[in-house]
Amino acid sequence: LETMADNNDSYLNKDKNGYISPDVVTYTILMSAILKIGTSSASNRALLLYKEMKRVWGIMPDRALVDIILTAMISGGNSLGINDEDARFTMTVLRDAKHLDWKRGELRKR
User: Fold this and answer.
1) How far is the first Cα of the chain from the last one, in angstroms, to the nearest whole number?
2) Could you please report the per-residue DSSP string of the chain?
3) pLDDT tens across 53-70, in order?
4) Of 22, 47, 71, 89, which has the fewest beta carbons less than 10 angstroms from its beta carbon?
């Protein structure tokens, strides 16, 4: 088992102190779970995580994360309706999404 654990460590992003660094998958899982709560405070927390992901770790969203956020925001996941902060969050995600490799017209469809 020790050899198996050592081999699995090579897949982890570790910093110079040996701590595991998050990646876009880490943030996708966190935000997906939080946005499923469907409250205003949950969408605020997702926004804070999104900002942290970009500013602290320098991680940009991938297509999966963009889809999760847009689906949550557009489907009215927030039981109180979409507020101004949610709209700004959605616009930020859309701006970031423009830098991803989309087929012609694919982002617009989302």
Assistant:
1) 45
2) -HHHHHHHHTTS-B-TTSPBPP-HHHHHHHHHHHHTT-SHHHHHHHHHHHHHHHHTT-PPP-HHHHHHHHHHHHTT-STT---HHHHHHHHHHHHHHTTS-PPTTHHHH-
3) 999 999 999 999 999 999
4) 71
Identify the residue whose tokens are 């700004």.
88
Residues, the chain: 110
Whether the CB-CB separation of 21 and 53 falls below 8 Å is answered with: no
* Of 97, 73, 68, 100, nearest in space to 85 by CA: 73
Mean pLDDT of 76-101: 80
* Nearest one of 54, 55, 49, 61 to 102, comparing CA atoms: 61
Q: Six-digit token pair at 40?
A: 């205003």
pTM of the model: 0.78
